User: Fold AEC family transporter from Helicobacter japonicus.
Amino acid sequence: MLLAIYSVCVFIFIGYIAKLLRLVGDKQSGILLGFLLNFALPAQIFNGTYHAHIDIAFLYVCLISLFCSLSGGVVLFGIGKILKLHPHSILTLSFMGAFGNTLFLGLPIVNGALGEDYANKVIIYDQIVTGIPIAFLAPLILSLGGKGVFSAKAIGLRLFRSPLFLALISGLILKLIPLEIPDDLFIPLKSLALTATPVALFAIGVQMSLKGIKEEWKLTSLLLFGKMLIAPLVLFLIVLCGFGGFNDLWRMALIEVAMPPVVSAGAIVIKAGLNAKLAVSAIAFGILLSFASVPLWLAIT
Assistant:
């Protein structure tokens, strides 16, 4: 796992340095993100979905993890109300506190800690716990920020225009067909999928900004407290009290629930005109904090 964290640090650092040296501008960054979201990640999701072993126990873990992740957002919403924060800050806290970076950051760490079989499971886990819930809630957040109208049509369009969701559905459909696809046919797809993690981490590095931390350090600390302490603590207690201890499937879930806020949630917050500085600083500092917090969570299991 330490080697995986080291690799994550290196790719993010390279992206951040490229940004500081102006080796990568907005145009190049846009091309990278387009390649990532429309080709590399769908290839990774399709390949992982088709080859992952899915059973009732795994889906049960996903649902409990979703409950624990959302609990972090609910707690932050309550704290924001008690402290009488600005509504935009409360929405930012609760929305970003509910969804972690389960794919870009979580996948390589799970792969390093638990192996490729669990990395394939992460791809489906990400869509159930992060991707699809965000697709449902994004129109609501945008409408609360005055940037659109919340409707079932908006949710449906967002889902079925997403290459990531379509890749998941396609992988599941082929998985259900009683016809085995030769592994050789997946070789180009696997090669494309291998580029997803380094490109995603590089893109995170390019987008990172540490300027907002000084201005929003109190709310940033509060957000990360809810996302990276409360949510995994709820999962830890549920597993310890309800299931008697951790196996590798629950360890995968703990790593994912303990992830810092996801970049896409920050992008939605910024687009909705909410607390953009808080969103950016929470993403940047959360990534740095995760390199210490995730190994600690694993150590106590």
Q: What stands out?
A: The domain at 1-300 is CATH 1.20.1530.20 (Na+/H+ antiporter like fold). The first helix runs from residue 2 to 20.
